[in-house]
Amino acid sequence: MVKAFSYGLGTYEVAEALEKEGVDYLGVANILEGVEIRKEGVQTPIMVMNPEAASFNLMVEYQLSPVIFSTKNLALFAEAVKDAGLNIPFPVHIKIDTGMHRLGVNPEKLDEMADWLLALEQFIRVESVFSHLAATDEPAHDAFTRQQIQLFDKLSSRFRKKFNYHIDRHILNTNGIIRFSEYAFDMVRLGIGLYGVCNDETTQQKLKTVSTLKTKISHLIEVPKNETVGYNRMGIAHENKMIATIPMGYADGFNRLLSNGKWEVIVNGKKAPVIGNISMDMATIDVTDIDCDLGDEVIVFGEKNTISDMASRIHTIPYELFTIISPRVKRVFYT
Fold it and tell me: Domain limits at 252?
């Protein structure tokens, strides 16, 4: 999965790296994400999870395979394929709603969907049928997860029998791969795990940190005892302090909820707590007991102060913190 700016890490660079590794498919959220990757020369098949009917012509032009979850969308996409005058059927993916209740064909309407597809087989070919699990990371919901999988197995088997060619099946996301690997079917959809994060502690220890958010000290200032730091005077110097300013704020993805000691960055191997409120373009950190200077590297998150820990501090998930990193933050890739 390379949707949402490759989980905040970069638009096409991750896709290019994955193509070199020989992955079979890439997954994006919308058409424009797929178009951007195609424009960079990536040829791997791309599945668009939530395509907009108004842009179906772009999907055909850039060879992006839509996820279809209603007969209305299927009919509109078939029209786009017809208008393009293609000589071979265009690949699509059929999503079944097994309990997530977000997107997907209603199980009661799956036979109708199959009939539509058979009537349109000159223009449309089903590449895969799949569903999405709602709670693979929470053991408390394992019974529901297994119920989803069993329903999918039953429905997808019946669906595939209606066609005279092979159709792949898939349902597992990252935590599904870890906890329910016996249901891998024909393929799996690796998401957050690709970026070094998962909910399973044992597996997390085996994953490498693949991204580090860094900045540098831009200013150092001595703050006397009882003075305050930052907006609303929320940072209080209970003793004489050395404060460093870093050029990274909430507009860059450094969440404002991490203000006032809720997070520690790493400066020269030591933890430096945030002091005061994080502002739009800057933050201040307490480096009183750290030997540092202007231009020294500051690790906002990385191996020693992980994004998972950061997320837990403010009661959110790593997905959110990855994806809010602003495009104005420079990305450097090492392969």
Answer: 213-323
Among residues 221, 307, 302, which one has the least CA distance to residue 267?
302
First to last CA, the chain: 18
For the chain, what is the domain count? 2
Helix (H) or strand (E) holding 322: helix 318-323
Burial of 238 (0-12, 13-18, 19+ CB in 10 A): exposed
pLDDT of residue 16: 95
Structure tokens at 31: 């058409």
Contact by Cβ (8 Å): 62, 38: yes
Average of per-residue pLDDT across 283-287: 98
* 21 lies in some domain: yes
Q: Residue 47 domain-assigned? A: yes
Burial of residue 34 (number of CB atoms within 10 Å: 0-12, 13-18, 19+): buried
13 lies in some domain: yes
Judged against a pLDDT cut of 90, whether residue 249 lies above it is answered with yes
Catalytic residues: 3, 231
Computed from CA positions of residues 292, 296, 301, 306, in that sequence, does the dihedral angle turn out positive or negative? negative
Distance, in Å, from the CA atom of 49 to the CA atom of 94, rounded to the nearest integer, reads 10
Q: From CA 281, how far away is CA 205, in angstroms rounded?
A: 33
DSSP state of 192: G
- Would you say how long the chain is, in residues? 335
SS3 content of the chain, % helix, strand, coil (to 5): 35, 20, 45
Same-domain pairing of 70 and 160: yes
The first and second tokens of residue 150, run together, are 């069993």
Distance between CA atoms of 215 and 296, rounded to whole angstroms?
Answer: 9
pLDDT at 334: 87
335 assigned to some structural domain: no
